[in-house]
């Protein structure tokens, strides 16, 4: 076990020969829940905008589970099991460290072991297109209160010289923790990110262009909402901008956060309220890295109805109304005759009449 970090660094150095359109980010979210003598650790990993792994200590034989769309299941069957064994080992290390930190903080605040407490960790790193470290971060929180923050960034002072900056906001930890975090985000995290980019490049390095359209929603006699949609795109970074006669209207735009679509892609919309009749003056500009150039969209109104078409429709409607009225009159006339005949037959004193008599029997 002691040789694993060294192997990670060596294999990471070899990965520098790879190049990917970047930058790319690996983020890890870990939460330890503790209470009544029991605990559970849940970890989730993301590369850029894609969930790549899940770890839950409460599952039988806890191990990292690959996360991917169904279309990638064949990749899972062919994946090297040693890769996922390595990921499981690292997450178990995170679980042990989180448990030790939670116990230390609980003792620091003189709290009962039976109470419910949480220890949360967010960590990550960013690499450039050459796979080299650009920046890293680490945050921890105890019961929702941030206890530690570390940020590392390579800031070029000259083309040949780069310096590393460290910022610690609040530290209930030792200096060794700062050094450990620095080593993790600069080395282990970077190595893991390179592995994911190499092993899942067909998914993580793909680009899916957005499917776009504009919808029209009248709200009142004086206002209409135009909504610009972008669906099914990847990665998640996209820009939707409404313009009026070519002038940006960013401040007047209602913009929702980019949302996952559930199939590995993303969706987003931007809305603009406009006066009725002026819709064609407004355009939506869509920018995404999968597009060779920005898209310019307008609301596409339904085909204009001509006066001839209106006249035909009005005549057809008149015929329908006349036919319906005639049918009602015909039904009334015939139903009246039927009632008259029935009354005559029912009240008839003929011996050939109905068996059911509506008159009193004769004495």
What is the gist of this entry?
This protein has 363 residues and is of the alpha+beta class. It has helices at residues 4-14, 73-78, 81-108, 175-199, 201-204, 307-347; strands at residues 24-35, 38-47, 50-56, 65-66, 117-127, 133-142, 145-158, 161-168, 211-220, 223-233, 239-244, 247-248, 254-255, 259-260, 266-274, 282-287, 295-297.
Topology:
Layout: H1 4-14, E1 24-35, E2 38-47, E3 50-56, E4 65-66, H2 73-78, H3 81-108, E5 117-127, E6 133-142, E7 145-158, E8 161-168, H4 175-199, H5 201-204, E9 211-220, E10 223-233, E11 239-244, E12 247-248, E13 254-255, E14 259-260, E15 266-274, E16 282-287, E17 295-297, H6 307-347
Antiparallel strand pairs: 1-2, 1-5, 2-3, 3-4, 5-6, 6-7, 7-8, 9-10, 10-15, 11-12, 11-16, 13-15, 14-15, 16-17
Helix pairs in contact: 1-4
Describe this entry's structure for a reader.
This protein is of the alpha+beta class. The protein is built from six helices and 17 strands. It has helices at residues 4-14, 73-78, 81-108, 175-199, 201-204, 307-347, and strands spanning 24-35, 38-47, 50-56, 65-66, 117-127, 133-142, 145-158, 161-168, 211-220, 223-233, 239-244, 247-248, 254-255, 259-260, 266-274, 282-287, 295-297. The strands form three sheets. An eight-stranded antiparallel β-sheet has the order 4-3-2-1-5-6-7-8, with helices on one face. A hairpin with a 2-residue loop joins β2 (38-47) and β3 (50-56).
Counting helices, strands and paired strands, the structural category is alpha+beta
Total E-strand runs: 17
Give the strand line-up of the largest sheet: 4-3-2-1-5-6-7-8
State the assembly state of the protein chains.
single chain
The H/E string reads: HEEEEHHEEEEHHEEEEEEEEEH
Question: How much of the residues is beta strand, in percent?
Answer: 25-35%
Mean pLDDT: 77
The CA-CA distance between the termini, in Å, is: 117 Å
């Amino acid at each position: 076990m002691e040789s694993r970090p060294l192997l990670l660094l060596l294999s990471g150095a070899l990965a520098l020969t790879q190049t990917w359109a970047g930058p790319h980010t690996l983020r890890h979210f870990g939460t330890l829940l503790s209470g009544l003598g029991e605990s559970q650790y849940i970890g989730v990993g993301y590369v850029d905008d894609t969930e790549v792994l899940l770890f839950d200590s409460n599952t039988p034989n806890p191990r990292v589970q690959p996360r991917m769309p169904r279309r990638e299941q064949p990749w899972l069957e062919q994946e090297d099991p040693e890769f996922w064994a390595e990921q499981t080992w690292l997450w178990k290390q995170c679980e042990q460290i989180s448990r030790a930190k939670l116990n230390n903080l609980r003792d620091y605040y003189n709290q009962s072991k039976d109470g419910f407490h949480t220890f949360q960790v967010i960590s990550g790193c960013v690499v450039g297109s050459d796979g080299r470290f650009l920046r890293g971060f680490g945050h921890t929180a105890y019961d929702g209160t941030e206890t530690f923050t570390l940020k590392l960034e390579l800031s070029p002072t000259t083309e040949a010289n780069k310096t590393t900056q460290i910022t610690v906001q609040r530290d209930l930890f030792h200096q060794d923790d700062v050094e450990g975090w620095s080593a993790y985000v600069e080395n282990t995290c970077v190595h893991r990110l390179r592995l994911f980019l190499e092993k899942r490049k067909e998914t993580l390095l793909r680009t899916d262009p957005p499917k776009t359209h504009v919808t029209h929603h009248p709200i009142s006699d004086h206002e209409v909402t135009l909504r610009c949609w972008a669906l099914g795109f990847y990665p998640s970074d996209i820009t939707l901008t409404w313009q009026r006669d070519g002038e940006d209207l960013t401040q007047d735009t209602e913009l929702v956060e980019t949302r996952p679509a559930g199939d590995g892609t993303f969706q987003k919309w931007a809305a603009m309220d406009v006066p009725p009749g002026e819709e064609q003056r407004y355009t939506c500009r869509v920018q995404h890295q999968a597009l060779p150039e920005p898209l310019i969209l307008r609301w596409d109104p339904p085909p204009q109805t001509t006066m001839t078409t209106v006249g035909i429709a009005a005549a057809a409607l008149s015929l329908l109304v006349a036919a319906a009225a005639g049918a009602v009159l015909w039904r009334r006339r015939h139903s009246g005759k039927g009632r008259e005949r029935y009354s005559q037959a029912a009240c008839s004193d003929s011996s050939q009449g109905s068996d059911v008599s509506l008159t009193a029997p004769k004495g």
